[in-house]
Amino acid sequence: RHNRIIRSMPRSWAIPQNRDRPKSMSEATGQFPASQTTTSKEELRVVRRRAPFKTWLYMVGLLLMLFSATLLPPIAVAWWYDGYGVVLPFAEALGATLGLGLLCWLPVYRFKIDLRNRDGFILVVAFWVLSSLLGALPFVLSDQPQIRFVDAVFETVSGLTTTGASVLVELDEMPKAILYYRAQLHFLGGIGIVVLAVALLPMLGIGGMQLYRASTPGPMKDEKLTPRITETAKNLWYIYVGLNFLCFLAYWAAGMSPFDAICYSFTTIALGGLAPHDASIGHFQNPLFEWITVLFMLVAMVNFALYFLAWRARSLKAVFRDAEFRFCMKVVGGIVAVASLHLYLDGASWWDAVHLGAFQGISIITGTGLTTAGYPAHEIWPAFVPLLLLLSSFFGGCVGSTCGGIKAIRFLLLYKQSVREARMLIRPSAQIAVKLGDQPVPDRVMQAVWAFYFLYIFNYCGFSLALAGPGVDLVTSFGPVAACLNNMGVGLGATASGFSVLNDTATWLMSLAMLIGRLEIFPLLLLFLPDFWK
Fold it and tell me: What is the pLDDT of residue 115?
């Protein structure tokens, strides 16, 4: 900084070039004009330490303005299908979101920011909370449906976290814009609007690695597909949009209307579950639609990074060689086989058993939550199958996909660690490494996996006890918590047909459970640690 100022000074202010060169501008000139004052490096560090709040305001403002733009497509759908009365709530929500974003950004838009790891976690949590609250405005302001704020927030959180749990009924009679908006929330939350923001931040001179690490699920957050994090985010976003487009074409070619094809493609690739019909995918009674859904659910549960590697290598070997992918497919195949066999032994034909077991099994395991007629009513389905699938929702899919749950790679590492401990009992002095493929897994990763697993089960037990406290039966207590924490969306007991039966306290708790499951606990937990703020 000193050199730049020296070069811009008049020659009459020239500093002697000798060993006794003065250390400051005031020593060099005797009298230095007020307009030419400088700031030392130490002072710059102090300024940066004192301005984290400005950084947060700047970034939250940008993200909210970006989020406000996502309300334009629902406005277009409302104008095309429903009329001015439905356009107005979305326009008011857009104005409120954009106004709040400008209110945060304008006072600090000249501020030069430098994101740190702590800023990334704070911004991700703040943005998810604010987008959940502001995203509820169209539901609150709309005349149809007329729902309370707590239910509107629950519906919005369910959409953004790709859970698919719903408090709404009579969907077939609702405006098209509302139905599209619910599906679009899945689209935005699937890959994460934060990842899109990471791709755009460098255009503004802002690095995005901190946001990427804070919002990316899985134990290996520091792996990048490309040297630049911006390119990584862009590639993931292109793959996600491309899969949505292919899914839309498949539904449309099979006979679904363009509007339904868009909505179901959003909810299928995002592994969500907010369908535009009360009967979900069972509304059509078309096995072809269901098998298309099965295919794209399997595609969406794979790590998106593998698709990028396969595209770059022009070969699918990168997918089939992945240890997590192979393990995930074996587990999913085993669960589907057990469910289908039980349905067959319970009296279903072999075709119905395979069809229903495959569709419903993959839908619950991946956390999609799309259902066919009768599920999960115990008078139609044997109690064993819904319970098996509910437990399998904890498994989820591959890390780096849009699924919920604990993720396959964590279960694979836990299994390998258990085998290692058993072998260590036989040979206590042996040096046995936990390997993923041919690569040894660092102890730091294993520690993080064990910590995550403990906190996940602890949260599940805590939320279940909180629901059981007011006297709710055990099935209704444990089912909704699994549905929300695993971002799966299909409850049991009283919530089998919808979550509107929950009281306000339980609804707020389930909204929190969905956020914890989507953010994978640690970003929220860090905010309550004193060391995080030091």
Answer: 74
